[in-house]
Structures are given as structure tokens and as C-alpha cells.
Amino acid sequence: MVLDLRVCFLGESFVAGVGDQKGLGWAGRLATRAIAAGQPLTFYNLGIRRETSSELRTRWEAECKRRLPEGADCRVVISTGVNDSVLERGMPRVDPVESVANMDAILRRVQGNGWQPLVVAPPPNVDPAHNHRLEVLDEKFAQLCEGLGVPYLRAHQPLLENKIWMQDVAAGDGYHPGAAGYDEFAALLVPHWLLWLADPGSGLPTLR
User: CA-to-CA distance for 107 and 58, rounded, in angstroms?
Assistant: First the structure.
């Protein structure tokens, strides 16, 4: 009997893979690596460009319930926050306190449905001031996930220090990389991703 493993990827343009010439993004690359490693799965990319965590909070559960049936091994991967921290009229689109509250509400509902969550940090871009806001949010998300017992992959700082990612982002629109950048993002996550698929309660090491 083949395990019915299903994974929904939730988030914004980086989840959707905007800018990737291969059309995979990091989510598609993770799914490809899992299948290549002998772990068959059904995955759904539910990323929406420019979406905030507040917008995600209102729509994610209905979309996941259609795709994550009872009896399956159901997982949810979440990555949000970049759009929350974009300034509009001098203020973040979503206040950081609200961003954390949104993530908290989503994760509690994921767990309440009996699904296994994994959170990936919002990635950096070419704007140092924006990255500083993301670093603050990254820390708050990490603390929240620790309290809820949810694996959290702190990819923001490793990508900020990754020359290929930063060069690829700079060569594009300042936010989204091309295929080379998404390769780096996925490579960073793959070991933790494969471990989580094999055993979601294994206590993943935290990226620093």
C-alpha cells in the first residue's frame, strides 16, 4: 500500500515561484527532491503573489480542506511575511504584532485539523531596511513556532549571506531570484524537508 502523502504550500510569490525560469520555485524543487529520494507525494502550490498573512488567514483553510482528506498523511508548509513588511504610506502593510497573530491562528488551526505544519522564514531582498524588518519578524515567528512545537526553518539569514541568492535577486526585480536563486533556497531546505517528511516529530535542527 502506497502512503497517501499530501502537502499544501501556503504563502506569497516566493512560494508561487515568481521569477523562476523553470516555473518551480523552491516549493516545486522540494517536491521534486522528495520524489527523487523515493518519497511519493501529492503537492499543491497555493502561493499568491502580493498576498499578506492577513489575506492568507482568511482563505487557506477552505483551500486545504479540499486537498487534504481524512485518512491521508496531510502536511502544510507555510512561508509568509515579506508582503506584510512592505511599507505603504510609511507603514508596514501588516503590523508585526498582527503578522504573528495571523501565523499563530493559522498554525493552531493546522494542528487542530490533525495536519503537520512546517514554517519557512521569509527570504531577504536588496533593501537593507526591509531586511531589518524581516529579521525582526523572523525572530518573532521562530519564538512562536518554538512555543507551539512547530518546526521553523530560519532561512532568512543564510540566504542574506548567500552570494548567489543575493546576486540573482539584484539581477531581477530586487525581490525575486531566477532559477539559480531558487536552487540555493531549495538546497538550503532539502535536508530538513526530507527529515520532516520521514518523521514530522523528529525535532528538526533550526537553521541559523
Answer: 13
CA distance 4 to 189: 22
| pLDDT tens profile 84-140 | 999 999 999 999 999 999 999 999 999 999 999 999 999 999 999 999 999 999 999
Cell 535536508, located at residue: 191
- 10-54 pLDDT, tens digit per residue, is 999 999 999 999 999 999 999 999 999 999 999 999 999 999 999
Residues 165, 188 contacting (CB under 8 angstroms): no
Grid coordinates given for 116: 503537520
d(CA 177, CA 25): 9
H or E stretch at 115: none
Answer for the pair 118, 151: CB distance below 8 angstroms, yes or no.
yes
- For the beta carbon of residue 132, count every other beta carbon within 10 angstroms: 12
Is the whole model's pTM more than 0.90, yes or no?
yes
Alpha helix (H) ranges present in the chain? 13-16, 25-36, 53-65, 96-112, 128-148, 156-160, 163-171, 179-198
Ranges of beta strands (E only) in 91-200 are 91-92, 116-120, 152-153
